[in-house]
Amino acid sequence: MKRPTSRKSLFCILPFCIILGLLVLFPVLVAFSNQQGVASKVKKATQKLDKQGQVKISIPVPKNIVKVNEEYQGGVFFTEARKTEIKRFRCSSCHNNKKVTILNAADISHADIQVIHGDKGKPLACDTCHSQDDRDFLVTSKGSKIDLDHVYDMCGQCHFRQKKDWIGGAHGKRVTYWAGERVVKNCTSCHNPHSPRFEKRWPQTYSVPHN
Amino acid sequence: MDSDKKKKINRRTFLKGTASTAIAGSAVVTAGCKAKGLLGSSEAFALEFQEYFKKHYRLMTKAEREGTVARLEKLARLKQNITINVDTTEPVEKVLYGYAFNVTRCEGYMECVEACVKENNLDRKSNTQYIRIFEMEHGQMSPDQGDGKYFHMVPAEGHFYMGVQCFQCQNPPCVKACPTKATWMEPDGIVVVDYDWCIGCRYCMAACPYWGRRFNWNQPEIPKEEITKEQHYLGNRKRVKGMMEKCTFCIQRSRKGKLTACAEACPTGARVFGNLLDPDSEIRFVLENKKVYRLKEDLGTDPKFWYFID
Amino acid sequence: MLSFIKDTLLWNLTGSLGYQIYLGLLICLMLIGVYGYFIQFKLGLAATNMSNIVSWGFYISNFTFLVGVAAAAVMLILPSYIFKDKDLHKVVIIGEVVAVGALVMCMTFVFVDLGRPLQFWHLIPGIGQLNFPSSLLSWDILVLNGYLALNALVPAYIVFCHYQGKEPVGKYYKPFVFLSIGWAVGIHMVTAFLYQGLPARPFWNNPLLGPRFLASAFAAGPAIISLVLHVVNSRMDYKIDNKIFNKLRIIIVSAAIINLLMLFSEIFKEFYFPTHHSQSAMYLFFGLEGHNSLVPWIWTAISINFIGTIVLAINPFKEKQIFLIPALILLIVGIWIEKGIGLIVPGLVPSPMGEITSYAPSSVELYITVGILGLGMFVVTMLLKPALIIEKRYEKK
Question: pTM value?
Answer without folding.
Answer: 0.89
